[in-house]
Amino acid sequence: MTQLAQLDRQVLETAKRRERSYAWRQTRVAWVFIAPAVLLVGLFSLLPVAFNVGLSFTKWQRFSGIDEFAGFANYQRLFALPYFSEAMMNTVIWVIGAMVFPLVFGLLLSLVLRNMAFQETIKSLFFLPRIFAPTAIGAIWYYVYAPHGVVNSVVSGVTGSEFDFGWLYVPSTVTGAVIVTFVWQNLGITMVLLLLGLSSIPKDPIEAARVEGATPFQVFRYVVWPLLLPTVMVVTILNVAAGFTTFDLLWVMASDFPGKRTLSLAVYMYYESFGKGAWAYGAAVAVVLGSIVILVSAFLAVVQSRVTKRIQ
Amino acid sequence: MSIDINDPAFLNSLIEQESKQTQTRSPYRALPMLALAIAYLIPFYLLLVTVFKSTEEYARKGILELPDGFGPLFGNLQEAWNGADLGRAAFNSLSYASIGSVVAIAIAAAAAYGMTRLRLLGANAWFMLIFTGTLFPFQMYLVPLLFGFQKIGLVNTWFGMLLVYLAICIPFPLLVLRNSFSAISRDMDEAARIEGAGEWRIFTSMVLPNAKGPLIALMLLQFTFIWNDLLFSSILATGTEVRSVMVALQALQGTYSTLGPNVVAAGALISSIPTVALFVVLRKYFMQGLSVGSD
């Protein structure tokens, strides 16, 4: 080997070593930058979730330690109890309601508002409920449904005879009534997101379809709808997640409802854990809820990525 | 048909078409929709007429009837402010929401910087780890957090509550800021590095100012989230010195409350003021946040 080649190799190696030590130093600096986020999220959200799964296999009550392993006992109990299946049924109703109604009404509104004067004003009016806290909205709507409340007064006024129905006390109406409030609060944001999606659709294919003589419905069905699907998926994912986990509205509005625990899985979990102190059992309910949420979200995410790909 | 732009008939038909199109934007067509939007807000009308009524007046009158005067408003607000310690709770929530949102986003921004602008081994794995924090419903956090906080004495403390809000408010901003930081050119910070600038300096004076829009939008979103929270604070911080405004409002409204609907409505009004004011002032960023949130 010639001296020159040896020197060459030496230079190359020093450069490589320098490069490596630079990369190493940068990685160490990067660790400092990400450390607070990793620590906080790890300690106060990921660790609790893992711990929650473990707890669901114990016999733990509020004042006893986590002493005894119980296997699947909590899960067996859960599937045997009518409360759980009722809460599950209501959760399904919630998810469907939260998915369908804001989407249908939001779509109608956004199509009507698209080219309308005062669009901004009307949009803001429909959006207004969303900037209030669900707890405050629930407190107001409580009196909308109350005896002598708005709904009953209007019905009494229209029919001319005294009407006094406890919308929030009766099992057959309480879920529907709170879903109406949820839709009322979330219609605006759904509509705004759909309007954003509509405004990003190019005008040319719509014009072309019109020139070809397509009816407004055909234009919507075959041109606008396929191009709007990615936005529809975003809205659906947000609303389905909200449908699964809505708590504030139910807790505030249905605070007097005797069968409170069966209102949804989120409420059932809270009631069992913090109302009754059955912590391990509540943890098991949370695990079931979490598993369903993750499965459904994963499914929706797959659909979303397919829809987006098809458009590109 | 040939197009002749000097042909008056053709020009007339163009003008006619144009005016037809503007007709669809005629303000009169918006009237039914405006009426619908106003009818939609009847619950807010209920809120407004109720806060001006005394308890006696509320019982005597129809629920949507106008109040006699503005008089009772001050008394209602005062009663709501003192009952259930709503005033104290509002200050608590204000501190949680303002400090929590600012610190959480600063931490998320630092992490996003480390992941996009520095050579971090396994940057994607770190990101996925933190992002996992958005997958699970909050119901899965509650029992372990209460248990853990009881062990280490953080239950019913201001600091413990803040830690939980911080952890929850980091993952989503990290996702957004990772995207916005990647979009900022890297040439600038390479140049600055050669000039001898430290990473902290590049982060605070070159990258952060270039992401002002998303940073403000995220702060609004997270401020609103913390201010509106009932679930976590109703479990982890129930003492009157540390509890949040929503917990206090719920206590005001709850089954065992003896206060009239007029006082509850006043409480709902008080507890809505900060987020509504922020929305009105920073509406532009709020809408930007919506499109950020849906990407």
Description:
The complex is a heterodimer of chains A (312) and B (295). Chain A has 312 residues and is an all-alpha fold. Chain A folds into two domains: 1-40; 80-311, MetI-like fold (Orthogonal Bundle). Chain A is 78% helix and 0% strand. Chain A is flat and about 110 Å long. By secondary structure, chain B is an all-alpha fold. Chain B has a single domain, classed as MetI-like fold (Orthogonal Bundle). Helix content of chain B is 73%, strand content 0%. Chain B has helices at 8-23, 27-40, 42-51, 55-60, 72-82, 86-116, 123-131, 139-152, 158-169, 171-183, 187-194, 199-207, 212-228, 233-236, 245-253, 261-281, 283-294. In chain B, helix 3 packs across helix 16, helix 6 runs antiparallel to helix 13 (212-228) and helix 6 packs antiparallel against helix 15 (245-253). Chain B is flat, with a radius of gyration of 26 Å. The two termini of chain B are 46 Å apart. The model of chain B has no long low-confidence stretch (mean pLDDT 85). At the A-B interface, helix 1, helix 4, helix 5, helix 7 and helix 9 of A face helix 2, helix 3, helix 6, helix 7 and helix 8 of B.
Integer tally of domains of chain B: 1
DSSP helical segment count of chain B = 17
In this structure, how is the largest beta sheet of chain B organized?
none
CATH fourth-tier homologous superfamily of chain B: MetI-like
